[in-house]
Specification:
TIM Barrel; eight-stranded parallel beta barrel; alpha/beta
């Protein structure tokens, strides 16, 4: 028995109808999908804290949803932190034609300011147009110092009255942070000499922080880093003193309690005192220190970590120690408040809040410590 022949276009019509149904479903779902939450900056808030020296390093650079930025900064204030350190990458914002995408930094700065938080802005990373081909984002040479200074000046001018502190670069004594090149304090001082007058002309009230130096015990001649104490001494020898208003320092405790005495051959929290000795040796008693990264890690398997209860105790004791013994320190910022997404490694155990905004015990302990229960 012969089968009836199908019209050659019937299959195409069926596919077309199915395609229309699929398109209709997509349109319907897009209509039914809830609108993104409306976020408004809101009324100005005020930080309540019994420990004004305490701050935190946020990581909002890669946070794209505004409500998450706002919630992070609300929780920072509710924890009792007086201010934040935040990274604003030059490479993310400025195009080769000079135009700047200010939308994301505007968002971060406006929300932080509304929460009553002091803002220390770290400026770094070099756009492709300002560095040689096939070099990393951390590569910045003398040919682009003026471009960097111009961007820093524009940033300082735009956020006048909202951002009062600016860190120039990050850990310049590490080869990695200097574009995987040998790093020398003279090079960094040349950068400061380009940036400082440009920023001060744009916004005389901006406080320029040099550093932040990475604590390291690398031996002389190491291709990876220069000892932070040696590097700082070299900065002064190269004439840096006139080109920064404060020194940014990183002070991690690793496995040591905060009260352990400093030693040039040991990395611990009180290495800050050795940094201060270098400053005093150059007659720079008036310049304050800002600890822009500090803290302990409680990863269960990392060899430089401590137990969660130790981390809490060491952190609170460190804040108290700095308040009672270091009148030259203006801020002690803990690394890090929260990451936008998990690293699935030991860095997650530096944070105080999960990506899902679940507070860790250390957040609750700090909140109680600052009088914000």
């Amino acid at each position: 028995m012969r089968q009836p022949m199908r019209h050659p276009l019937s299959g195409q019509r069926l596919k077309f109808r199915n395609g229309l149904r699929l398109l209709a479903m997509v349109i319907l779902l897009s209509v039914l999908q809830p609108a993104p939450p409306l976020v408004i900056v809101g009324q100005p808030q005020e930080v309540v804290t019994t420990h004004a020296i305490f701050g935190v390093h946020t990581r909002l650079t890669d946070e794209v949803e505004e409500w998450k930025i706002q919630r992070s900064l609300q929780m920072v204030r509710e924890m009792g932190a007086s201010g934040i350190v935040e990274f604003f990458p030059w490479a993310y914002y400025q195009a080769a034609d000079g135009s700047v995408a200010w939308e994301h930094p505007d968002m971060v700065v406006n929300h932080a300011h509304a929460q009553g938080l002091t803002i220390i802005a770290r400026i770094g990373l070099t756009p492709d147009w300002a560095k040689p081909p096939d070099t990393p984002l951390t590569y910045l040479d003398g040919g682009s110092y003026d471009d960097f200074a111009s961007f820093a000046a524009d940033f300082a001018d735009r956020y006048r009255g909202k951002v009062d502190f600016m860190i120039i670069g990050n850990e310049p004594n590490l080869s990695y942070e200097w574009g995987y090149r040998p790093t020398a304090p003279e090079d960094y001082v040349e950068l400061l000499q380009a940036v400082y007058p440009a920023v001060k002309k744009a916004n005389p009230d901006m406080t320029i922080l040099a550093g932040a130096l990475a604590p390291t015990l690398e031996p002389e001649g190491s291709p990876w880093a220069v000892n932070d104490l040696t590097y700082l001494d070299g900065m002064y020898e190269a004439g840096a003193a006139d080109y920064f208003d404060g020194l940014a320092v990183h002070a991690y405790g690793l496995t040591f309690p905060p009260e352990v005495e400093p030693d040039p051959n040991v990395l611990n929290f009180r290495r800050v005192e050795l940094v201060r000795e270098v400053m005093l040796a150059h007659g720079d008693e008036a310049t304050p220190i800002y600890i822009t990264e500090s803290g302990w890690n409680d990863h269960p398997r990392w060899t430089h970590a401590v137990r969660p209860a130790q981390r809490i105790r060491y952190t609170l004791d460190a804040i108290t120690f700095a308040e009672e013994n270091w009148p030259f320190v203006e801020m002690l910022a803990i690394w890090a408040f929260r990451y936008p997404s998990p690293t699935r490694s030991y860095p997650d155990y530096f944070t105080l809040v999960t990506p899902e905004f679940m507070t860790k015990p250390i957040y609750d302990a700090i909140q109680s410590f600052t009088g914000n229960e």
